[in-house]
Design brief:
The protein is elongated. The protein contains 14 helices and 16 strands. Helix content is about 30%, strand content about 25%. It is an alpha+beta fold. The longest helix is centred in the N-terminal third of the chain and has 23 residues. An eight-stranded mixed β-sheet has the order 6-10-11-16-15-14-13-12, with helices on both faces. Strands 1-2-3-5-4 form a five-stranded mixed β-barrel. The two termini are about 40 Å apart. The chain binds 4-amino-1,4-dioxobutan-2-aminium adenosine-5'-monophosphate and magnesium ion (MG). The site of 4-amino-1,4-dioxobutan-2-aminium adenosine-5'-monophosphate has 24 residues, from strand 11, strand 15, strand 16 and helix 14.
Length: about 425
């Protein structure tokens, strides 16, 4: 018997009682009752209790089971038995217990500090919560790609090293580049804009970097950025695409991640309920709403976590805040005669801003004027300005923080748990 059975199949009841199986994993928990060892084994799909009995397994197997520490790598063969006392309702009655590797004393036990757990992140990744979060993230990424494909968006791979800034200079990571300097990308937007003139509807999922000196539950220095850009697309049309995409991702996670959501304490029904269209609230009205709620908030102020929470209070689904004052936003957004821009932030209840997007300025003179006003040198944007010289068309796009979305969808408290090896201020280890 060589085939290995995923633990999930046993827990799902797919293995008949009495059937012999082989499982493979790591010791999650262990307790000894003299001649009987209960060893709970973890694999990527679940945990299963194995009863290892003296006299039933060979003596050296029994001794190994008695002395193997947590996180030892093991292979266990045995027969499946229903047992309501075992976690998951099934037990494996071992006939063979083979240790692949005897673990040293595992440094992680209960009640350890957040800092310590971040120091041993490479080991803490084995926790059930992080395992569940990583699986949700995989489904989120898969659903994004599936939706884009369905809508005719083509995946592209824009550069990470760049000489131009998309989102302003203050949060750029600078890197030496063959005697010159380059920057780690904050956004693929400008390069995606170049690609719409051949492919029309494009997207990219790339790492983005922000040297933001903010320690908050929603900021990473390195995050995965899903960005879309479409030619002949209005502001309303791009928002319609985004809201349907977000709803689709929520439904896929609810459908495919029942077990993971249970581990994370997130109710899948709340995700199933999400449906397009989402409410659209003009920035001016958002300001009024906040003032009514007692906030000392005035036009021109940006939303912090408290304002975001107040704006989504009591809501079941995200809300778009649109048409910010032009003075608050980057040069590339299309400005209206009233001084607002055709932009939007999508704010999720308990998740904060998960998307920022806009319709883009298409007129060469207007965009040059804005760049100059922002103190930028036009020659640094020469290639980008060319896009307004050769067949410029209406277009819109957006950027979605994948970890922000995962944090919200999975109900995580902190964005760092939406990524395996978080890069935050003062930490790039492990
Ligand atoms: O709002 P942002 O800065 O917009 C842009 O970068 C546009 N150029 C995108 C575009 O139109 N193509 O960033 C977009 C999203 C935010 O809404 C947020 O979800 C995420 O990126 N984000 C971060 N996620 C984690 N950590 C950070 N420090 C983030 N900064 C932005
Ligand atoms: Mg933003």
């Amino acid at each position: 018997m060589t085939q290995v059975t995923p633990i999930e199949q046993v827990l799902d009841g797919h293995v008949p009682e009495g059937r012999a199986v082989k499982i493979r994993g790591w010791i999650y928990r262990s307790r000894s009752q003299g001649k009987l060892n209960f060893v709970v084994v973890r694999d990527s799909t679940g945990i299963l209790q194995c009863a290892v009995k003296k006299g039933v397994v060979k003596d050296d197997h029994f001794e190994d089971a008695s002395k193997a520490l947590l996180e030892s790598a093991v292979i266990v063969e045995g027969t499946v038995k229903k047992d309501s006392r075992a976690p998951g309702g099934f037990e494996l009655q071992a006939s063979h217990f083979h240790v692949l590797h005897f673990s040293e004393v595992f440094p992680i036990s209960k009640d350890q500090s957040t800092e310590f757990l971040l120091d041993v992140r490479h080991l803490w990744l084995r926790s059930r919560e992080l395992t569940a979060a990583m699986k949700v993230k995989a489904v989120v990424l898969e659903a994004i790609r599936e939706y884009c494909k369905k809508e005719g968006y083509i995946e592209t791979t824009p550069p990470i090293l760049s000489s131009s800034a998309a989102e302003g200079g203050s949060t750029l990571f600078e890197v030496p580049y063959f005697g010159k300097k380059a920057f780690l990308s904050q956004s693929a937007q400008l390069h995606l804009e170049a690609l719409i003139f051949s492919l029309e509807k494009v997207y990219a999922i790339t790492p983005s970097f922000r040297a933001e000196k903010s320690r908050t539950p929603k900021h990473l220095a390195e995050y995965w950025h899903f960005e879309g850009e479409a030619a002949h697309c209005s502001h309303e049309e791009i928002m319609a695409f985004e809201e349907k995409l977000v709803a689709f991702v929520c439904h896929e996670v609810a459908r495919q991640c029942q077990k993971e959501l249970a581990v994370l304490g997130r109710n899948p029904q709340d995700l199933e309920k999400i449906s397009a269209p989402f409410e659209k609230l003009a920035y001016q009205d958002a300001v009024k709403r906040l003032q009514k709620k007692g906030f000392k908030f005035k036009e021109g102020d940006d939303f912090g976590a408290d304002e975001e929470a107040a704006l989504t209070e009591g809501l079941d689904q995200p809300v778009f805040v649109t048409h910010f004052p032009s003075s608050m936003k980057p040069f590339y957004m299309l400005e209206n005669p009233d001084g607002t821009v055709n932009n939007h932030d999508l704010i999720a209840p308990g998740g904060g801003e998960i998307i920022g997007g806009s319709e883009r300025e298409v007129d060469l003179q207007r965009i040059e004027k804005k760049l100059k006003k922002a103190g930028e040198k036009l020659e640094n944007y020469a290639w980008y300005l060319d896009l307004r010289r050769f067949g410029s068309v209406q277009h819109s796009g957006f950027g979605l923080g994948v970890e922000r979305l995962v944090k919200w969808v999975a109900g995580l408290e902190h964005i760092r748990d939406a990524t395996a090896f978080p890069r935050v201020m003062n930490r790039a280890y492990p």
